[in-house]
C-alpha cells in the first residue's frame, strides 16, 4: 500500500461526457469556494459586530447553510482527484482482474446510493415547495434553498461517480482484450 492514492481511472478519459463532467465539477468547486469566502466575510462581520456590542441574529444560520454548500459542491472534484476518504483495506489485498472487478462493484454500489440520495432530495424539495416549508429560526429561510444546493452537489457527485464507473468498465474491457 502506498501513501499516495492511485490515479483516478477517469483522468485518462477525454470524450465529450468527461470534458463536460470536468467543467461541471469545476463549477461546483468555484461555487463552493465562493461560499467559503462568504462564510469568512459573514463571520468576520459578526465578530466585529459583537465586539462593538451589536451581534447579528443571522450570521450563524447563513454560515451553516453555506458550510453545507462548501461540503457538497466540492465532493465531485474531490472524487475526480481521488482525494476522498476511502476504506481500501480489502481491495488493497487483491490483485489484477479481481481487484478491478471488486472496485467496479464497490463504485456501482456507491453510485446507486448517491443516486438514491439525489432522488430522495428531489422528493424532499417537492415536499418543501408543496407545503412552503421554512426553517424554524428567526430568518425563516425557505427550506427549498439549502435543499437545492444539496441536490446540485449530490447530482454532480452522481455524475462523477457515473464517470468513474464508465472509466472502470472501459479499463476492464481494455485489460480483458489484452489478455485474449
UniProtKB/TrEMBL annotation:
Tell me where the transmembrane regions lie: 24-45, 57-80, 101-125, 145-169
Q: Which GO terms describe its cellular component?
A: plasma membrane
User: Where do the Tripartite ATP-independent periplasmic transporters DctQ component domain residues begin and end?
Assistant: 39-170
Highest taxon of source: Bacteria
- InterPro entries registered for this protein in UniProt: DctQ (IPR055348), TRAP_DctQ (IPR007387)
**GO BP:** C4-dicarboxylate transport
Its keywords, alphabetically, are: Cell inner membrane, Cell membrane, Membrane, Transmembrane, Transmembrane helix, Transport
- For this protein, what is any one GO molecular function term? transmembrane transporter activity
Q: What Pfam families does this protein's entry cite? A: DctQ
Subcellular localization, as worded in the UniProt entry: Cell inner membrane
Membrane topology, as annotated, equals:
Multi-pass membrane protein
Oligomeric form and interacting partners: The complex comprises the extracytoplasmic solute receptor protein and the two transmembrane proteins.
Q: What does this protein do?
A: Part of the tripartite ATP-independent periplasmic (TRAP) transport system.
Q: Belongs to which family? A: Belongs to the TRAP transporter small permease family.
Q: What is the name listed in the Swiss-Prot or TrEMBL entry for this protein? A: TRAP transporter small permease protein
Organism the protein comes from: Vineibacter terrae
Amino acid at each position: 500500500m502506498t501513501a499516495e492514492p492511485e490515479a483516478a481511472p477517469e483522468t485518462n478519459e477525454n470524450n465529450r461526457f468527461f470534458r463536460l463532467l470536468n467543467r461541471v465539477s469545476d463549477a461546483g468547486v468555484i461555487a463552493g469556494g465562493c461560499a467559503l469566502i462568504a462564510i469568512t466575510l459573514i463571520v468576520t462581520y459578526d465578530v466585529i459586530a459583537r465586539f462593538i456590542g451589536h451581534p447579528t441574529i443571522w450570521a450563524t444560520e447563513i454560515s451553516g447553510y453555506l458550510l453545507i454548500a462548501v461540503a457538497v459542491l466540492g465532493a465531485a472534484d474531490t472524487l475526480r482527484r481521488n482525494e476522498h476518504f476511502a476504506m481500501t483495506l480489502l481491495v488493497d489485498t487483491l490483485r489484477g482482474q479481481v481487484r478491478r472487478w471488486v472496485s467496479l462493484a464497490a463504485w456501482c454500489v456507491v453510485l446507486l446510493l448517491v443516486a438514491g440520495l439525489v432522488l430522495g432530495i428531489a422528493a424532499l424539495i417537492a415536499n418543501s415547495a408543496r407545503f412552503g416549508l421554512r426553517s424554524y429560526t428567526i430568518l425563516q429561510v425557505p427550506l427549498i434553498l439549502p435543499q437545492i444546493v444539496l441536490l446540485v452537489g449530490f447530482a454532480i457527485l452522481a455524475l462523477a461517480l457515473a464517470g468513474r464507473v464508465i472509466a472502470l468498465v472501459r479499463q476492464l474491457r481494455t485489460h480483458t482484450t489484452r489478455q485474449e
